[in-house]
Amino acid sequence: MIGIIDYGMGNLRSVENALKAIGRECVISDDPAVLHDCDKLILPGVGAFNDCMKNVTDRKLDVFMKEEVSAGKPLLGICLGMQMLYEYSEENGISKGLGFLKGRVTKMITDLPVPEIGWNELEWNHECPLRSLLSEHPYVYYVHSYCAADYDDADLAAYSMYGDIRVCGLVVRGNVMGTQFHPEKSAQDGLKILTYFAEVF
Question: What CATH superfamily is the domain 2-199?
């Protein structure tokens, strides 16, 4: 069973539908007792970083996630959920993140339109088990105005170029995984990423 963490914001139903499409049982909940009984956790995210983190901390889900990750439970952060894995964000002032990954989240400065909305190719930074599972040139779907900076290069499995910005697309550290893009909206390669998380990670 995969627990989708409900903190009052996020693309919960689209993640739920994608998991059902790959045949995985899941539950949407904000109850730590329910989520604790799940094998793996997904933290989706849509909206502003500080609002999302406030909702997470008000529900004490930050404490819950830190306990679960420390105990070895796999966690996948999607889009803003991935950004919350970092130490802090500069969106609308400084807001503290969960701190699972080294780095900060900062506004994308580029001549291209911001937010980045649409498909972009994933390029591999390090060898990763997912590489052999995806298509030769995987394209994934992004919707974001902020991205990770000052991160640990060892955490970066794959990235996408947006102008001259190297956008952290897929990050992995221990039992924590994050995608800046939306795997649930990224066609077959996106479903393969969710399958990998559900079955292998």
Answer: Class I glutamine amidotransferase (GATase) domain (3.40.50.880)
